[in-house]
Design goal:
Strand order of the largest sheet of chain B: 1-4-9-11-12-13
CATH superfamily of the largest domain in chain A: Glutaconate Coenzyme A-transferase
CATH architecture of the largest domain in chain A: 3-Layer(aba) Sandwich
Order of helices and strands of chain B: HEHEEHEEEEEHEEHHEEEHHH
Number of domains of chain B: 1
CATH architecture of chain B: 3-Layer(aba) Sandwich
Number of strands of chain B: 13
Distance between the termini of chain A: 52 Å
Number of helices of chain A: 11
CATH class of chain B: Alpha Beta
Number of strands of chain A: 12
CATH superfamily of chain B: Glutaconate Coenzyme A-transferase
Distance between the termini of chain B: 18 Å
Order of helices and strands of chain A: HEHEHEHEHEHEEEEHEHEEHHH
CATH class of the largest domain in chain A: Alpha Beta
CATH topology of the largest domain in chain A: Glutaconate Coenzyme A-transferase
Helix content of chain B: 25-40%
Number of helices of chain B: 9
CATH topology of chain B: Glutaconate Coenzyme A-transferase
Radius of gyration of chain A: 20 Å
Low-confidence stretches of chain A: none
Strand content of chain B: 15-25%
Strand content of chain A: 15-25%
Structural class of chain A: alpha/beta
Oligomer: heterodimer
Largest sheet of chain B: 6 strands, mixed
Mean pLDDT of chain A: 97
Shape of chain B: globular
Structural class of chain B: alpha/beta
Low-confidence stretches of chain B: none
Chain lengths: 297, 252
């Protein structure tokens, strides 16, 4: 028998079954762009509780907050871009239903992931100095440079704490069954950094192809994840919906508007949205989305 | 030739904010900053590096919200953070609140623990303000925006930066605050907000009434310059023929 790297393909349910209450979960993508929404939806359906969520947030954060899954939220912003303020996140914050909130500058967030990926307790940074990020997070300390400057003693910087993750969830365009993956859109975001900051990474993709297929029509520089960083691979076509996953599909603006209207509306509006779109499994979600877009056409 | 509107005055005022920046990355957030930056690139500062707001540096200067034509570089978010720390950047952000000391808030209104109104989050404001030149665009100058003290400090003004030490103040450079009524900076007494000019048709008293703190001695404040004929043509016929700017600053 020929030896070959492991086949890491698994189902959405297998991924979610491997998660535990109280875990720290990093969610890749950026705001309303290339989010692992199929996995987020599966977490909504699960019994998982008391999660720490680390995300440059979009509807992933809004949905998990609305469902009461978040014990601690680490974010720099939560936005849907064309709907600037995420209604479910806004509602949760204003009702005080997220017990612990860590708001960072968006660059500090990258530095925190970088520290975790390099197995360092912190990395120094200018961002955060003088701002209320340090006032509202008094546990974040500063560090003084051991090197003097020409005008005086060493300067004092923010010691951005490592954002170490138990699990990272990311969604890319293509992967092989071993976990090598390409992004085909405009921006890699920070999915590789999430993977390196995490103990385990679960990768969703639009399509699983054979390894040679990854670079047949795609420059090698678009290979963002190596299999050594990936625990499991899930094929979830349209799985980033309704976030942007170009070139496979753009953000579904009509659906996003319907989501935002329901999230910002009455309890009945939200219950109806949940019943229609979030009460079944991923196949049921995709069927409901299909019916929704036919109605809108 | 088209008639000069308040929006055109604002666009030229934003462009002036970037005219002396040289060859740096101009990062406008929102419609009017984007229009003003592109106007500057076509007039006072052709060396400005501009992006599509997503991940491409633009070789040309297309109309706002149009598709990119020539591309001259790649600027995904990770590289934006690199440029912020490197410093060759001037960002013009929005501001839900700005206070007397030039601090800005885009995080939340009320207490941070349980806000009355949750906004975006601090986004890049803390990092921007201690790393690269930062200006603000306020489409509706009012006492709700210009307050005595912001509820949450996202963008750091010069006083707070000085208090945080040399690492914070070294590159803190709050340059201009352009509004629908006026242009301001933070070079008043003790680095407080100062009124630099009022737009044509606006009185100094109106600006003071729309500001929630005392602007000090404003007796000799000049008028903001109007756009030139060339600028009016560029704004109205090249950069914003569809009139997106009037959604932020309606024509009277």
């Amino acid at each position: 028998m020929t030896k070959a790297p492991r086949d890491k393909r698994m189902s959405i349910d297998e991924v979610v079954a491997s998660l535990e209450d109280g875990m720290t979960i990093g969610i890749g993508g950026w705001g309303p762009r290339r989010k692992p929404m199929a996995l987020v939806r599966a977490i909504l359906r699960s019994d998982l509780a008391d999660l720490t969520i680390v995300s440059w947030g979009g509807a992933d954060v809004g949905l998990l907050a609305r469902a009461g899954k978040i014990k601690r939220l680490v974010y720099a912003f939560v936005s849907l871009d064309t709907v600037p303020l995420e209604p479910n996140f806004q509602r949760a914050r204003q009702a005080g239903t997220i017990p612990e909130v860590v708001e960072l500058d968006e660059g500090m967030f990258q530095t925190g992931l970088k520290a975790a990926s390099e197995r360092l307790p912190f990395l120094p940074m200018r961002a955060g100095l003088g701002s209320d990020v340090l006032v509202n997070n008094p546990w974040i300390k500063t560090v003084t440079s051991p090197y003097a400057t020409p005008d005086g003693p060493g300067e004092t910087f923010v010691a951005v704490p490592a954002l170490t993750l138990d699990v990272a969830l990311v969604h890319l365009n293509r992967a092989d069954k071993h976990g090598n993956a390409t992004y085909l859109g405009p921006d890699p975001y920070f999915d590789d950094l999430f993977a390196m900051a995490a103990e385990r990474t679960y990768l969703c993709v639009e399509e699983v192809v054979d390894t040679a297929g990854l670079t047949v029509d795609t420059p090698v520089q678009r290979l963002l994840l190596s299999r050594m960083l990936v625990t499991g691979v899930v094929e979830t076509p349209n799985g980033a919906h309704f976030t942007d996953c170009r070139p496979d599909y753009p953000r579904d603006e009509k659906f996003q508007r319907a989501y935002a209207a329901a999230a910002g509306g009455s309890d009945e509006d939200w219950a109806a949205f949940e019943e229609r779109f979030l009460s079944g499994d991923e196949a049921a979600y995709q069927a409901a989305v299909q019916a929704f877009s036919e109605e809108q056409a | 030739m088209s008639e000069t509107t308040r929006a055109d005055v604002c666009a030229a005022a934003v462009a002036d904010t970037f005219k002396d920046d040289g060859e740096i990355f101009a990062s406008p957030m929102g419609t009017m900053p984007m229009l003003g930056v592109r106007l500057a690139r076509l007039t006072s500062n052709p060396d400005l590096v501009i992006s599509d707001g997503e991940s491409l540096f633009l070789g040309g200067t297309p109309p706002i919200f149009a598709q990119a034509d020539v591309v001259e570089g790649w600027i995904p978010f990770r590289k934006v953070f690199d440029v912020v720390a490197h410093g060759k950047r001037h960002v013009m952000m929005g501001a839900t609140q700005v206070d007397r000391d030039g601090n800005q808030n885009i995080s939340a209104i009320g207490s941070f623990a349980q806000p009355k109104r949750q906004l975006l989050g601090s986004r890049g404001a803390p990092g921007n303000t201690v790393n690269n030149r930062t200006s603000y665009w306020v489409p509706k100058h009012s006492p709700r925006v210009f307050v005595e003290a912001v509820d949450i400090v996202s963008g750091v003004g010069p006083k707070r930066a000085a208090e945080a030490g040399p690492a914070a103040s070294r590159f803190n450079d709050i340059h201009r605050i352009v509004t629908n009524l006026a242009v301001l900076d933070v070079n008043g007494p003790d680095r407080t907000v100062r009124l630099l000019s009022v737009h044509p048709g606006v009185t100094v008293a109106e600006v003071q009434d729309a500001t929630g703190f005392d602007l000090g001695d404003v007796t000799a404040v000049p008028e903001t310059r109007g756009p030139t004929t060339e600028e009016l043509v560029l704004i109205g016929e090249v950069l914003d023929p569809k009139g997106y700017r009037f959604k932020e600053v309606p024509a009277p």
